[in-house]
Amino acid sequence: MTETPRDNDVLLTRGQARKAERERKRQAKDDAYEERLARKRSKDVQFWHGHHVVDAKTLAAAFPEPESPEYESGVVRRRITHAVTLVLLLALVVTGVVLAGMVQRGQLELNFAFPKTVPAAAVCPTETLKYPANKTVTVNVLNAGSHEGMAGKVAAELKKRGYKVKDVANGVTKYEAPVVIVSGPSGHAAAFNLQHNVAGSDYVQDDRKDASVDFIMTGEYTSLVEADKVSKKSGKLSCPHLTPAPTKHPAAPKKAPATPAAKPAATKAAAK
């Protein structure tokens, strides 16, 4: 089939159009390349290596600040804390100045002396106690005298009598008695038992909670009462250190015996 001159004109026009399009694209690439080169060579501070540099004015224009500045929560808390602290310090200073002025003018008297607590007067227990069994008494044997080994010997004797000996050691006491018996309120009966086993003992109460008893021997201690001679009658605790010594009054002058009146002479009546 032979091509007509009109068909040849159409094909030529299409080829020229494609060629023109390719030329246009190549020219656009060349123009872009030249523009980048020009930016690189340019001394404009808004461009660096072909990239646009955003300055502070541009950022401020793009992101305007709000009308009321917003602070972080941490900053707000610190400012509030500082304000409260300053107010408190100012109040303390003002209070100190006012108090100093009152003290100086004699309107206020400061007394820093603490009231002394008066200890309650010690009293000897007054209840009547029954003599408990020896096996129910827990005793600590303490040596406050100068004889070494005395606590161990007495502890052995008390064990033979059925007592529960807990501690055996040295001790101290300020009371003058052959033996000082010490217990708390719960140990009155146990202390009463031990007082019957030693002559001349003194009872002292402390604040312990259990029923244990301290058996404190001094240098005046000699021996225990013989087991078969221990009295088991009910009674009260003995507290010699709380019992005042009897007051000795001067003896009253002896009165001279009354002289008997002279008897009248008997008249002898003569009976006739």
Number of domains: 3
CATH fold description of the largest domain:
Alpha-Beta Plaits
The CATH level-2 architecture of the largest domain is identified as 2-Layer Sandwich
Please list the strands of the largest sheet in the order they lie side by side: 4-3-7-5-6
Strand content: 5-15%
Report the average pLDDT across residues. Answer: 80
From the N-terminal CA to the C-terminal CA, the straight-line distance is 233 Å
Give the SSE layout.
Blueprint: H1 5-41, E1 47-48, E2 51-52, H2 56-62, H3 73-104, E3 138-143, H4 150-160, E4 164-170, E5 179-183, H5 188-195, E6 202-205, E7 213-217
Parallel strand pairs: 3-4, 3-7, 5-6
Antiparallel strand pairs: 1-2, 5-7
Give a nutshell description of this structure:
35% of the residues lie in helices and 11% in strands. The chain is an alpha/beta fold and 272 residues long. The protein folds into three domains: 5-59, no CATH class; 75-109; 134-242, Alpha-Beta Plaits.
Describe the 3D structure.
The chain has 272 residues and is of the alpha/beta class. It folds into 3 domains: 5-59, no CATH class; 75-109; 134-242, Alpha-Beta Plaits (2-Layer Sandwich). Helix content is 35%, strand content 11%. The chain has 5 helices and 7 strands, in the order H-E-E-H-H-E-H-E-E-H-E-E. It has helices at residues 5-41, 56-62, 73-104, 150-160, 188-195, and strands at 47-48, 51-52, 138-143, 164-170, 179-183, 202-205, 213-217. The chain has a 5-stranded mixed β-sheet with strand order 4-3-7-5-6, covered by helices on one side. Strands 1-2 form a two-stranded antiparallel ribbon. Strand 5, helix 5 (188-195) and strand 6 (202-205) form a beta-alpha-beta unit. The longest helix has 37 residues, at 5-41.
